């Protein structure tokens, strides 16, 4: 029999996916997201960075107030008192480091790179005049000798680099800043002696921060200082800094950051454990954020203008670890932390040091990322196993709610107490999708049962109560 022309043609018949396969696909979305998170360096992964920012800035306990770290800041008041603009002159820096050395700090970490020599036009002119005086023979006369001696003293006073190097040498505990250069073209000249003693050995195969070269202060200042550390930060695609790089890989050598270099200066007997901690998460672990106003501050104006014998200055600086950097309006880097904005880079280095020495680092990659993946798989498998055994939709929803609460509680406890950051969103997303799939399947099954019952009642109608059967029908 040929089909009627009005009969619509049916397409090829496709087999209907089984309920088990649909649940596996829903769970696979959550597991796939957990795999992406683990492959890209651990939590926070895609879709959960904003959530992580809110949790770490509002719920996790912050770094307690520092007792031995002090921020010596070049703030607006310091610039006004000095009558200078940024960058400060080398003579001012020399005065500042001499004043700090008088307070005998434990270490002085400087968030500044002196990569260019100071102005030398007047020095070169004075040296030419001095050479001419010596060649003229006037130095043999008392007046000429006095003139030459006075000119030498004046040139020494005007040589800012030399005075700064002397001040750094007198201090003996200054760690200068350095910059890791990512591109071949840079405004800063790379150091030629990249095999310098500033590099460290770390027990990790690969670091997150890779660079082509390192730029540092000029040679006289580097030789006078105790060491140097890189000032670079790791900025995520959304512009937020969540990880601190304790070291940078430059042609196979590992250069410590300012925080790590300062920690090694303060605790040389713990260098092995410090380097091991700094190697967590490929040298760039997640940070615990400080509480508001956790770092005591002293203006550079007070350091330069106060009496060196001041009791208040002595109590504020003696034996402390000082972080020196600019915080004046519009001059410091606009570093954005989770839940915070415009944090000076020098302050980030300070609480990174506190995180390192107190072992408050938060781990999210490596075996922690693998544990997060396994926890997500176990969570979704347990929910799928439970879905096959309960009969009501309410029981399925209750199971999803309980498992979700346990998942959130576990992730929160591990992050707050142990510093292990597991992915949160993949498990929750997988649970939600599986719940939707199971609800849709149960609703469809209930609809089929209702349709079957409706067709049954239409085919076999029942008499209303209290009525007799139609004639001809048996009772």
Question: What topology emerges from the helices and strands here?
Answer:
Elements lengths: L18 H21 L9 H10 L10 E6 L1 H7 L7 H13 L4 E4 L10 H16 L5 H17 L1 H12 L2 E8 L28 E2 L1 E3 L3 H6 L2 E4 L16 E4 L2 E4 L1 H9 L4 H8 L1 H4 L13 E3 H6 L5 H7 L3 E6 L18 H13 L9 H21 L5 H26 L6 H35 L16
Helix pairs in contact: 1-15, 1-17, 4-7, 5-6, 9-14, 15-16, 15-17, 16-17
How would you characterize the overall build of this protein?
- The strands form two sheets. Strands 1, 2, 3, 5, 6, 9 and 10 form a seven-stranded mixed beta sheet that branches. Strands 4-7-8 form a three-stranded mixed beta sheet.
- A hairpin with a 2-residue loop joins strand 7 and strand 8 (253-256).
- The chain starts with 18 loop residues before the first helix and ends in a 16-residue tail after the last helix.
- The protein is an alpha/beta fold.
- The chain contains 17 helices and ten strands.
């Amino acid at each position: 029999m040929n089909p009627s022309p009005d009969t619509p043609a049916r397409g090829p018949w496709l087999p209907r996916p089984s309920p088990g396969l649909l649940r596996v696909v829903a769970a696979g979305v959550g597991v796939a997201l957990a795999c992406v998170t683990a492959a890209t360096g651990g939590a926070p992964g895609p879709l959960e960075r904003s959530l992580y920012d809110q949790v770490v800035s509002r719920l996790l306990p912050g770094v307690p107030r520092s007792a031995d770290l002090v921020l010596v800041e070049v703030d607006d008041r310091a610039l006004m008192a000095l009558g200078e603009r940024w960058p400060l002159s080398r003579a001012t820096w020399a005065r500042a480091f001499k004043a700090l050395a008088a307070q005998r700090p434990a270490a002085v970490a400087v968030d500044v790179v002196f990569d260019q020599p100071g102005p030398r036009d007047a020095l070169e002119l004075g040296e030419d005049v001095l050479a001419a005086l010596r060649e003229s023979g006037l130095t043999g006369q008392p007046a000429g000798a006095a003139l030459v001696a006075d000119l030498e003293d004046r040139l020494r006073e005007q040589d800012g680099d030399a005075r700064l190097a002397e001040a750094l040498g007198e201090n003996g505990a200054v760690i200068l800043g350095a910059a890791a250069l990512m591109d071949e073209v840079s405004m800063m000249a790379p150091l030629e002696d990249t095999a310098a003693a500033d590099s460290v050995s770390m027990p990790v195969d690969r670091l997150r921060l890779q660079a082509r070269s390192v730029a540092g202060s000029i040679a006289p200042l580097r030789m006078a200082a105790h060491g140097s550390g890189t000032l670079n930060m790791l900025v995520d695609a959304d512009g937020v800094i969540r990880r601190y790089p304790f070291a940078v890989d430059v042609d196979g050598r590992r250069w410590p950051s300012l925080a790590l270099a300062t920690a090694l200066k303060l605790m040389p007997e713990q260098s092995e454990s410090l380097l091991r901690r700094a190697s967590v998460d490929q040298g760039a672990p997640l940070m615990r954020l400080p509480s508001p106003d956790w770092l005591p501050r002293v203006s550079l104006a007070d350091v330069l203008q106060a009496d060196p014998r001041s009791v208040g200055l002595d109590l504020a600086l003696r034996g402390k670890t000082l972080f020196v950097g600019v915080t004046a309006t519009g001059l410091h880097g606009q570093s954005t932390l989770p839940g915070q904005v415009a944090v000076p880079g020098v302050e980030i280095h300070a609480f990174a040091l506190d995180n390192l020495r107190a072992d408050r680092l938060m781990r999210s990659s490596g075996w922690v990322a693998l544990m997060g993946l396994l926890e997500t798989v176990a969570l979704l498998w347990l929910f799928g196993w439970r879905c096959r055994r309960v009969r009501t939709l309410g029981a399925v929803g209750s199971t999803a709610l309980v498992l979700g609460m346990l998942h959130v509680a576990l992730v929160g406890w591990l992050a707050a107490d142990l510093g292990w950051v597991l992915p949160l969103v993949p498990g929750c997303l997988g649970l939600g999708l599986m719940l939707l799939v199971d609800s849709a399947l149960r609703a469809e099954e209930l609809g089929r049962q209702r349709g079957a019952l409706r067709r049954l009642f239409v085919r076999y109608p029942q008499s209303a109560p209290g009525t007799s059967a139609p004639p001809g029908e048996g009772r």
